[in-house]
Design brief:
The structure is a single chain. The protein is α/β, with parallel strands linked by helices and about 750 residues long. The chain has four domains: about 1-65, no CATH class; about 70-175, OB fold (Dihydrolipoamide Acetyltransferase, E2P); about 185-445, no CATH class; about 495-745, Ribonuclease Z/Hydroxyacylglutathione hydrolase-like (Metallo-beta-lactamase, Chain A). About 45% of the residues lie in helices and about 15% in strands. It is built from 27 helices and 25 strands. It starts with a helix and ends in a 10-residue tail after the last helix. It is found in: Cell membrane. It is a multi-pass membrane protein.
């Protein structure tokens, strides 16, 4: 078993490298170890290096298939096949596609295995259909911020290394006969049937996800309910679902097999085959996504190991399954969901099957549920900073009822020729969710993000706590878990101000922290139902340990500055709201009436002074109403200008003395538009650092080259969120302010544009 674990560790280590690892160097080391005089003692290290080399080679192959940088943003004619189920929102039809042919001269040797496509004409793209279309693609790219979802790693894991839009005039070709296309058409028909039979029921979207794995029909309020009860995993077809289904089918098969005399195969083997076939069929119906594939592979490896001629035992079978999955898909190591489901299933097997002596079934089930809740607690708290207090109770109720009863019933009902069975299951699901709606009102444990060391120690602690009762040292497990609940203090000392300019794409969001208080200036953009307040700012604040905002400033009401405001005041209940356009912001129904932003307003928090410099008079609108805020700490200052334009800068120059505008750090107005950052204004501010918040390859081409040049002529170091990620700096801590970009300071090989 140590060799298997070392191989898996080598695969994972390569995925965790900062720079793209070299498989040739690793393979050379493996050959030397295998041929040298030390080979007898280097077998363990050899397993590690072979795993590393295999993973590194796969990384090299995937990076070679990235969309060429020189063809970003340029229209290209392609032949594509729609994979998965297209989704429609208020703005576009979204779909994934496989590129069968790319019409370029000279031809490309490689292209991405999968691309994301948006059709802003909201056309119909049936599952499994083929098209000749003109796409405008760009390389995989996402915002880069602390404590937020690593979207670029997820895109790399999925192999979706390009995304873009389709131009009007796509020509439909003959439908694909690829097995995946048949599967997708089958799933689309299943979704249509569930929608027809159960569309009027409250949780019809959840039922669709349980049957087909398609989660796009679940509304946001139901996602919040599952998050607040610790049941998000329940609506994602994963290792836990497939294991429960396989175990149920295997148990029923064994019970029936022992009561027949025609076939003489061992009941255990018959049960394993039936369970695996059921899990594989369910995985196909759920879309055969990468997480589903990994879970099915894991079950096959476990079954082969446990039912083979020479049983390996639970521990060795688990290690074999881990190696099998990582061999087939090394990029699984990038997925939190993989580790979450794998260790949950592993602990359930360890607790339930790896014990000496028989236990009553109800005690075995209780121990398995305890193991599942325990296994999920550490990654959930490490990733999201929240843990529902009643999660074990919710899982104890929901997993057997929904996972082991309603899900198999839904699958059986969907196979029947009548829709009546689906409607009955939908009604039963509505009834089953009623207790969970009440459990969702319970408070949640929330804290700052723990350190990596605390996560490792807690993972070991969970393993120790899973030992059988009576084993010496179980109390050590609790001690190992304690650092997870004691995160480091991240607030600055009194007299200092910690500034974070978040990477929110084409928009602006700045977090200002003092010793005891937190202010957010602007809230990023909102596009359709998604906004940067919920996607970026809220996870960042939660990771920093901020439970409540003391103040929220919305410079003006343009959607790229005010789009996430509602998400923030709904979760963090700011003490007050200050806005450049309070009348327009009031239409969003804030919890308290926003106060108008006016020059001369000021306040002091923990030795840090805040001064409003603009607007000087009321009545302005749009960019001219931008609230300009200066933050001062121990002789160092930051100037936030919103979207103030040249005329507004001239008004500030006429109203204020030059020293009132001086700042060490300038967050450049209007994302670097040529209508802002005039030469006279820059001479008055005299910034040493200039930060531009702009989106990658944005349609406005911000920052404008003239502004970029003016900033350099003013002697400022220039920073860009689209290049550097979120920028963090501290006022009052040192004579020389040193901004740090989250993307550039922590590069990883899976980032677009590395290094």
């Amino acid at each position: 078993m140590p060799y298997l674990l070392l191989f898996a560790a080598g695969v994972t280590l390569a995925q965790c490298c900062l720079a793209p690892p070299s498989w040739m160097a690793a393979l050379a080391c493996a050959v030397l170890l295998g041929c040298g005089p030390w080979r007898r003692h280097g077998v363990w290290l050899l397993a590690l290096i072979v795993g590393f080399a295999w993973s590194a080679w796969r990384i090299e192959q995937r990076l070679a298939s990235a969309w060429p940088a020189q063809w970003e943003g340029r229209p290209v004619m392609v032949t594509l096949r729609v994979v998965g189920l297209p989704r429609q929102d208020a703005m576009a039809t979204r779909l994934d596609a496989v590129l069968e042919h790319v019409e370029l001269s000279p031809p490309l040797a490689n292209w991405p295995a999968r691309v994301g496509v948006s059709d802003y004409q909201r056309g119909d793209w049936p599952a499994g259909s083929r098209w000749r279309a003109q796409l405008t693609l760009r390389r995989w790219r996402a915002t880069s911020n602390p404590h937020t979802f690593a979207a670029e790693a997820w895109l790399m894991e999925q192999g979706r290394l390009a995304s873009g839009s389709v131009r009007p005039g796509a020509q439909r070709l003959a439908d694909s006969q690829h097995p995946q296309a048949w599967l997708d058409r089958w799933r689309a028909a299943a979704v249509a049937r569930v929608t027809r039979a159960a569309g009027e029921h409250t949780y019809s979207g959840v039922l669709t996800a349980l049957i087909t794995g398609e989660q796009g029909y679940i509304p946001p309020e139901h996602w919040r309910l599952f998050a607040q009860t610790g049941l998000t995993h329940l609506v994602s077809v994963s290792g836990v679902h497939l294991t429960l289904l396989a175990g149920l089918v295997a148990s029923v098969t064994i019970w029936l097999w022992r009561r027949q005399t025609r076939w003489r195969a061992p009941p255990r083997l018959a049960g394993a085959v039936a369970g695996l076939l059921a899990a594989s069929a369910y995985g196909l119906l759920a879309g055969w996504s990468l997480p589903t594939q990994r879970s099915v592979y894991m079950l096959w490896a476990l079954a082969l190991a446990l039912c083979g001629r020479y049983p390996l035992g639970v521990g060795r079978a688990w290690a074999l399954a881990l190696c099998a999955v990582l061999t087939l898909d090394p990029f699984a190591a990038l997925s939190l969901g993989f580790w979450l489901s794998f260790f949950a299933v592993g602990l359930m097997i360890w607790v339930g099957a790896g014990r000496v002596g028989a236990l009553p079934w109800w005690r075995q089930w209780g121990r398995a549920q305890w193991a599942a809740s325990l296994a999920m607690a550490v990654p959930l708290l490490a990733s999201f900073g929240e843990l529902p207090w009643l999660s074990p109770l919710s899982n104890l109720y929901a997993i057997p009822l929904i996972g082991s009863v309603l899900t198999p019933a839904a699958l059986l009902a969907s196979a029947l020729p009548t829709d009546l069975g689906v409607a009955w299951v939908a009604q039963a699901l509505d009834w089953a969710m009623w207790p969970l709606e009440h459990l969702a009102d319970a408070p949640m444990w929330a804290q700052a993000a723990p350190t990596t060391l605390a996560i490792v120690l807690a993972s070991l602690g969970v393993a120790v706590l899973s030992l059988p009762a009576g084993v010496a040292g179980r109390a050590l497990g609790l001690a190992l878990c304690l650092p997870l609940f004691c995160p480091p203090e991240r607030a600055p000392p009194t007299g200092q101000a910690q500034i974070t300019v978040l990477d929110v794409g084409q928009g602006l969001a700045v977090v200002v922290r003092t010793a005891q208080r937190t202010l957010v200036y602007d809230t990023g953009a909102r596009v359709g139902a998604s906004d940067m307040g919920a996607r970026v700012i809220a996870p960042f604040l939660a990771g920093e340990g901020v439970a409540r905002l003391d103040g929220l400033v919305v410079s003006h009401s343009d959607m790229d500055h005010a789009g996430g405001a509602a998400s923030l005041w709904g979760r963090f209940a700011p003490g007050w709201l200050l806005a450049g356009e309070p009348e327009r912001l009031s239409k969003e129904r804030p919890p308290a009436a926003p106060q108008p932003c006016r020059a001369g307003q000021h306040w002091q928090w923990d030795g840090v002074r805040f001064d409003v410099l603009y607007p000087i008079h009321g009545g302005a609108s749009d960019n001219h109403a931008s609230c300009v805020l200066r933050v001062w700490a121990q002789g160092q200052a930051l100037l936030l200008t919103g979207d103030a334009e040249l005329a507004d800068e001239d008004a500030m120059l006429a109203h204020w003395q030059p020293d009132a505008l001086a700042a060490d750090v300038l967050v450049v107005g209007h994302h670097g538009s040529r209508t802002s950052s005039g030469q006279a204004f820059l001479q008055a501010v005299r910034p040493r650092d200039a930060v531009i918040s702009a989106g990658y390859r944005n349609r406005y081409h911000h920052p404008h080259p003239a502004v970029w040049t003016r900033l350099a002529d003013a002697g400022a170091r220039r920073w860009r969120t689209d290049r550097d990620g979120a920028l963090r700096l501290t006022l009052g801590a040192a004579a020389d302010i040193q901004p740090e970009g989250f993307r550039t300071a922590r590069p990883h090989w899976w980032q677009s544009g590395w290094p």
